[in-house]
Amino acid sequence: MFTHLDSSGNVAMVDVSGKPGTMRSARASGHIAMSPATIGLLEENALPKGNVLTAAKLAGIQAAKQASALIPLCHQLNLSWIDLSFDVQSDRILITATVKTKEATGVEMEALTAVSVAALTIYDMCKAVDLSMEIGSIRLDEKRGGKRQETQRYR
Amino acid sequence: MFTHLDSSGNVAMVDVSGKPGTMRSARASGHIAMSPATIGLLEENALPKGNVLTAAKLAGIQAAKQASALIPLCHQLNLSWIDLSFDVQSDRILITATVKTKEATGVEMEALTAVSVAALTIYDMCKAVDLSMEIGSIRLDEKRGGKRQETQRYR
Amino acid sequence: MFTHLDSSGNVAMVDVSGKPGTMRSARASGHIAMSPATIGLLEENALPKGNVLTAAKLAGIQAAKQASALIPLCHQLNLSWIDLSFDVQSDRILITATVKTKEATGVEMEALTAVSVAALTIYDMCKAVDLSMEIGSIRLDEKRGGKRQETQRYR
Amino acid sequence: MFTHLDSSGNVAMVDVSGKPGTMRSARASGHIAMSPATIGLLEENALPKGNVLTAAKLAGIQAAKQASALIPLCHQLNLSWIDLSFDVQSDRILITATVKTKEATGVEMEALTAVSVAALTIYDMCKAVDLSMEIGSIRLDEKRGGKRQETQRYR
Amino acid sequence: MFTHLDSSGNVAMVDVSGKPGTMRSARASGHIAMSPATIGLLEENALPKGNVLTAAKLAGIQAAKQASALIPLCHQLNLSWIDLSFDVQSDRILITATVKTKEATGVEMEALTAVSVAALTIYDMCKAVDLSMEIGSIRLDEKRGGKRQETQRYR
Amino acid sequence: MFTHLDSSGNVAMVDVSGKPGTMRSARASGHIAMSPATIGLLEENALPKGNVLTAAKLAGIQAAKQASALIPLCHQLNLSWIDLSFDVQSDRILITATVKTKEATGVEMEALTAVSVAALTIYDMCKAVDLSMEIGSIRLDEKRGGKRQETQRYR
User: pLDDT tens per residue, chain F (155 residues)?
Assistant: First the structure.
């Protein structure tokens, strides 16, 4: 039942050698909450140049490529596309990541990793002005593809 | 004010060459929420052997070491200690990470990265049995050290 | 004859662009010898929780994924499965690693790397109590697959 | 007693924040056994140009730098020197690695990792001509430095 | 038109999920200029053993594998072949890299990265004897393959 | 004389264990030449948002941190500051990188690596619109610090 534990309860990787390579995608999201004052500063100084969000997007893309190096039982996958978008609200930034592959396993972890590292990058760039930030709501929204080409909605 | 943006609003790294190496530590925390049924399965099958949490702890330690490779404007630091602990509750696992260094900048991002990747690792190992998981409440608890040897509490 | 040296004796990578992707696997093994007293301590304190061997297994899995980054002329491969098992004997721990891929070259080096890094991880965790440890007998046991779908036994 | 297991038997990193940075070194060795025919081919074709051993030396140096990324509970260290030497005998190549640092923990694992990955690199480059190779005798020879500036001989 | 910028001018990765995996190759070149005296020393001391160029070749191969980790919007690709050759002239070393893949995007960046890092490696090994070195002329020579199996010559 | 070759002409790392940690900096520069039309498109679409140059700057910073992993005989260093600036001219973009450390060896290679990877990142983002680009003039401008606290100008 726990695919990553064997019958003795030991950690184990899933053998995906029998699964075909097919188009697969996953979309994950999350947010970083911050004070409205920080959001104001970001919009005034930084967002016009897109710099904080550009850095977060690039960091999220690079982290998605490294998901299998970060998460021990995660398979190596060459990703066909990684995209992140940001929705700046009054007291938080919503982050959404979409990932695609044509390989033999799903890309949920890659999408979740992209969201997490993008949030950490925003945290890093704003931490000098805001001690109240919090990262949350990191979850899968949707997963598509695999052998039945099904869509799994998570919310 | 935004230390990671220069006067033109461009991304910029902070020059820490003038800061002395001193003992510094940071503690961060977060959680992964899951269904009580998943918690039950974990306790029955896996936690007695510590495997899921051992994998999460090791992944968090390894990610903390890689923080500067994941977060673009984060400085390279050799960490003196990285520790993670887990508190399994009825519907969530609380994750706490403590990081120490003797170098010239704080280790907030290293602690936050450890928590985030530990949570992602638990997510990966439980995702076959639980579609409802969510990672949240990732924040700094405390930061110590630096030139004034002060303690900054965040909550 | 030396596939990794060209006709002038210079190091060279093998061109595998003409080889088809097929199911391939390799199994390698090795051991880490230690004093019976260390084995006793491990069984008493650590093995009940599986922690030393869990750490070694996870490190071996992660290293197998990185084989082409460690070994200069080794090709990049996305691995379908990596498994390690341990046999604790009176004065040594035997380590076996099995690796599978569906790509165009064999996975011998990935299996050997997994065994090597798992052994190094055990060494690291026991070095405070045992100065006599030695890693040895690292070799291939079997290789399967490739264009002729043959099995090559090494011992 | 096991410094990498806490009082509950869980994996744990050692806190070295209280240890001073001092000159430390370690020397490790090991061998790769191969058929005399392979040794002959190596000496005839490759060793005059130093290519196989140059590749092995470079791979060992690069792996030593990555030891803390490969071995989960190993500390990050900036190494001051990494050297490998090779002694080609009739049926094996002996490999010795010496590593130095000025940081707060010993470099045993870095030296052992250098030997291991140098051996794996030789294996990779010779595996097309020799199915009988075996890597062994990987052990520490000597460790120097630390707070008491002592020399610990291992054999 | 800029494939790596979206309609708002933001950085964006290209979605290659609709592109088939086909044989693709790219050849890039560049040079490192140095004083004739340095070339003389290299030929006298080092080139007979091939060591500087062997190190540069291995570094170029390893860097090509890491191109997607270095260049943010570059796709992950498993490379089938990476080759570098060197032409030592009176006041410069010409470097040529050829890369092949069977995956869904071109390998221009991998070939250019191989040339760049090979040049940097030569720079590093000669910098103690020559303050005048300069790396230049790094460009694509030819690109083959893709959906139309065309050859694009760049010079 | 060649510090990276031993007395037999073999590659060798320099032992810096006897050198003190002191403030050191290096500045390197280079350019990427492109057609005036590409420069025009960049200024019209992308530069107002700073995206291409932001990506190049972040890639250069991240690559500087990885210099010792890319260049085999380069020492590991924790960098105190990495900065890149860009001067967009009619037919080329000039790139300058400045790097600082407080460790025991110079940071020339880190600065040169930052320039090289920033140029490769610009190449990647513009390659769909310009087949004529060329990276060149990569060289050291100045190096400061070390045991004599001297400044070495290279041009």
Answer: 567 777 666 888 999 999 989 999 999 999 999 999 999 888 876 544 458 899 999 999 999 999 999 999 999 999 999 999 999 999 999 999 999 999 989 999 999 999 999 999 999 999 988 989 999 999 999 999 876 667 888 86
For residue A65, the SS3 value is helix
Q: Which two tokens stand for residue D90?
A: 């009739």
Tell me: domain D24-145, CATH 2.60.40.1120, correct? no
Q: Tell me the residues of C at the E interface, defined by beta carbons under 8 Å apart.
A: 10-17, 68-69, 72-73, 75-78, 103-104
F20/B26 Cα distance (integer angstroms)? 29
Rounded CA separation E86/E116 (Å) = 13
Pairing of strands D79-88, C79-88: unpaired
Quick check: A114 and A122 in contact, CB under 8 A?
no
> Which residues are bridge partners to C81 per DSSP?
C100
CATH number of F24-142: 3.30.70.640
- Min CA distance, A1 vs chain E (Å)? 31
Query: Is E42:A47 a contact under the CB 8 Å cutoff?
Result: no
Distance CA A125, CA A46 (A): 11
CA neighbours closer than 13 Å in the CB half-sphere of residue F25: 18
Q: Helix C51-65 and helix C108-126: axis angle, to 10°? A: 140
Q: How confident is the model at residue C1 (pLDDT cuts 50, 70, 90)?
A: low
Check residues C155 and D131 and name the one with the higher pLDDT.
D131
Tokens of F94: 């000039």
Task: Note whether E12 contacts A83, CB cutoff 8 Å.
Answer: yes
Tell me which CATH homologous superfamily contains domain B24-153: Molybdopterin cofactor biosynthesis C (MoaC) domain (3.30.70.640)
Q: Distance between CA atoms of A69 and B65, rounded to whole angstroms?
A: 13
Task: Return the domain boundaries, chain B.
Answer: 24-153
Q: What is the DSSP string of A79-142?
A: EEEEEEEEEE-SSEEEEEEEEEE-SSS--HHHHHHHHHHHHHHHHHHHTTT-S--EEEEEEEEE
C-alpha distances (whole Å) from C152 to each of A117, C15, C25, C85 are 44, 22, 10, 21
Determine contact, residues E93/E87, Cβ cutoff 8 Å: yes
Q: pLDDT tier at C47 (50, 70, 90 boundaries)?
A: very low
The CATH class, in words, for A24-146 is alpha beta
Q: How many CB atoms lie within 10 A of CB A4?
A: 22
E strands present in chain D: 24-33, 79-88, 92-101, 134-145, 150-153
pLDDT in tens, C117-146: 999 999 999 998 898 999 999 999 999 987
Written in H, E and C, the secondary structure of F101-143 is ECCCCCCHHHHHHHHHHHHHHHHHHHCCCCCCCEEEEEEEEEE
Whether residue E141 is predicted with pLDDT greater than 80 in this model: the reply is: yes
Tokens of C1: 């004859």
Kindly determine whether residue E78 and residue C73, on different chains, have CB atoms separated by under 8 Å.
no
Distance of CA E6 to the CA centre of its chain: 27
**Catalytic-labelled residue, pool D6, D124, D130, D141:** D124
Residue of E nearest to A103 (CA): E17
Distance, in Å, from the CA atom of A21 to the CA atom of A102, rounded to the nearest integer, reads 6
The model's pLDDT over B42-73, given as tens digits with 9 standing for 90+, comes to: 887 654 445 889 999 999 999 999 999 999 99
Q: How many secondary structure helices (H) and strands (E) does chain C include? A: 4, 5
**What whole-number distance in Å separates Cα of residue B82 and Cα of residue C103?**
37
Chains that touch D (3 or more CB pairs under 8 A): B, C, E, F
Q: What is the pLDDT of residues E113-125, one digit of tens each?
A: 999 999 999 999 9
